[in-house]
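Quiz preparation item.
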């Protein structure tokens, strides 16, 4: 089968660290173009443009484009790419609002094109094993701890503090994507506290309480960008039969009742592009809005708490 000709719009940290090297390793794809408003180029990629319009005009036989820009501008970019008859991969979070994502899903479906929302933490091996284990069980407790140092993971990225940039939910949505993937019952937010630095328009921390099916106690998430030292990307799940399941390292390690079930390497983006290849070959869309919807619910129902200013 012919390789998919793919381009990337937005050459920031995630593109450079993940998308570009992973695409190059995957024989199903041929990275033929990049677009950067800063005029960045990528060694070995034959075409470089300032935006998606130039890319579509310059490489008319391109098959698909991965959008790795900040979320505020993705809707217009994705719309233009879909209108040109090309398939789209959306880095997380997929858009600025739920309405924008719904519109893109409808627009792609009307044209028979692939739209793929990527939640990279879902592609860790431990996540799928956890889902399989919990499927026949009743969850009685959930504790999510997703904490990291914003200065380490978003150095100098002022856009993350703008309204509409999600703040601490930019990494926190990864934890929510794991939870929505593995829970045997839907999650509903019952309480939210959002902590905003007095000089910023996006939260630096958040606490959420959940209802999972009929379970209304001991279901909580804590997200914090003020963590120092090692990152905490973990969740602990209790079940009615007394089992304790724990996912750590973002889902790369799974233990059940203290026994290690999975201890894998980080191959999240490898899994994303393997899945994208499958979707392209089937011309099948995959739009998962559940993690995104929980973030929207948190902003809608949350109590805003002002905390000390944040400076880089």
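Solution:
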């Amino acid at each position: 089968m012919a390789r998919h000709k793919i381009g990337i719009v937005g050459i920031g940290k995630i593109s450079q660290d993940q998308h570009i090297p992973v695409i190059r390793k995957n024989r199903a794809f041929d990275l033929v173009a990049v677009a950067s408003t800063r005029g960045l180029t990528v060694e070995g990629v034959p075409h470089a443009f300032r935006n998606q319009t130039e890319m579509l005009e310059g490489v008319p036989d391109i098959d698909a484009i991965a959008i790795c820009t900040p979320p505020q501008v993705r809707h217009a970019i994705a719309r233009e790419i879909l209108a040109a008859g090309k398939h789209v991969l959306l880095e997380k979070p997929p858009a600025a609002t739920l309405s924008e994502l719904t519109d893109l899903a409808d627009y792609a479906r009307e044209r028979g094109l692939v739209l793929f929302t990527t939640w990279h933490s879902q592609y860790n091996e431990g996540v799928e094993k956890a889902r399989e284990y919990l499927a026949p069980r009743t969850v009685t407790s959930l504790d999510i701890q997703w904490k990291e140092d914003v200065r380490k993971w978003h150095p100098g990225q002022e856009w993350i503090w703008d309204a509409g940039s999600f703040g601490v939910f930019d990494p926190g949505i990864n934890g929510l994507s794991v939870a929505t993937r593995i829970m045997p019952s839907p999650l509903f937010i019952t309480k939210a506290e959002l902590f905003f630095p007095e000089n910023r328009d996006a939260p630096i921390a958040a606490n959420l309480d959940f209802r999972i099916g009929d379970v209304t106690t001991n279901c909580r998430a804590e997200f914090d960008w003020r963590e120092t030292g090692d990152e905490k990307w973990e969740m602990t799940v209790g079940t009615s039969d007394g089992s304790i399941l724990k996912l750590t390292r973002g889902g790369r390690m799974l233990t059940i009742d203290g026994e290690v079930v999975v201890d894998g390497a980080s191959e999240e983006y490898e899994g994303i592009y393997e899945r994208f290849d499958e979707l392209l070959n089937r011309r099948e869309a995959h739009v998962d809005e559940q993690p995104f919807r929980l973030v929207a619910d948190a902003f809608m129902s949350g109590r805003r708490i002002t905390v000390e200013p944040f400076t880089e």
